[in-house]
Amino acid sequence: MNEISEADVIVVGGGLHGTSSAFHLAMRGARVVVLEADYVARHSSGVNAGGVRTLGRPLPEIPLALMSRDMWHGMKELLGEDGGFVPSGQLKIAETEAELDACRERVALLESHGFTHEKVIDRQTVLELEPALAKHVTGGIWVERDGYALPYRTTTAFRLAAQRLGARFLEGTPVRRIEPRGARWTAQTPRGTFSAEKMLIASGAWSGELAMQAGESVPVHPEGLMLMVTHRVAPFCRATLGATGRPLSFKQFDNGTVVIGGKLIGIAELANRHGEVDFMRLVKSAQTVTDLFPHLRHLGVNRAWAGVEAFTEDELPVISASRTASNLYYSFGYCGSGFQLGPGCGKLVSELMLDGAPSLSLDAFAIDRFDTRAGSSQSDAATLVAH
Hints:
Elements: E1 4-12, H1 16-27, E2 32-35, H2 44-47, E3 51-52, H3 62-73, H4 75-79, E4 90-94, H5 97-112, E5 119-122, H6 123-129, E6 139-143, E7 147-148, H7 151-164, E8 168-170, E9 177-181, E10 184-189, E11 192-201, H8 207-213, E12 220-230, E13 240-243, E14 249-252, E15 258-265, E16 267-269, E17 274-276, H9 279-292, E18 301-312, E19 318-321, E20 328-332, H10 342-355, H11 369-372, H12 380-383
Parallel strand pairs: 1-2, 1-11, 2-8, 4-13, 11-20
Antiparallel strand pairs: 3-7, 4-6, 5-6, 9-10, 10-11, 12-15, 12-18, 14-15, 16-17, 19-20
Helix pairs in contact: 1-7, 1-10, 3-10
């Protein structure tokens, strides 16, 4: 097979971060080829809960999340398609006084850093927003401009917009090996060898293997993230919901179905590129839902599924230029929370690759951070995650 050498950038991975980066690179005039092992949005980008969530982010992600949220609100103008984005607002529920105190501490910490998007609300306000909730709730955190979108539709929208700008997508094209050849990067696949000046590794749970080929070891591991969707039920919930004391991602669509997730860990088979549902863990999530909405206890589950996602040691993504090689870049390890960040990260990655520096600092996500902090712990600010 002949080597294809007319690309400026090879993007390895056709998930949301790969397709968003391809779009933003193509918008800047770069000739882009996207190599996807399965099909676009096959794994975490197509099967996640679709939360457009700034609420509860680790502190280093917040500037990026707020920037990306502005793009979500302008998605129709950007792509000609809004990805099914609904600005429903996001509510994280507290069920005890201790959990409400934790919410207050969280918001106070954010405000000390200048972030005011999260608001503590009391029990009465929570029940005014969502009257169907169980009356034991004590309050929570509310973010009005958050919401949700449709993952497969959003990723496809970025793909089609990138293709209109000349980007080429090759599905069923797994990258087996990457290596520099002269001033260019090559990607070896069963369909031949592809070559470009620059390369972006955005292949989710499989990115660690490719980074290792470039001499960069990242403590990343795969997990199978699960979701389930119920039968239809009369409208009862407008906001997208989470919980303070237990995992939950919950929303009701216009058609009446309810999608339930929240970092529900299933079974990931990396070699077989497959995620599998663990039904016993789904039972715990169903119990959370019926505790909060008792009237749903007899509602049937229509189907459940799992996708494969990459998790890093410190629960922050890798968004970085390589530290061992020129013209090699990474965007992976979003730990089950990368969907909301997709539009903004794609823009920042394109700036990093084409300008040498992004318009918003990505220092917290450098690939060599795991080496430099060996034997020491990160600061509380860098690892704050609201559970």
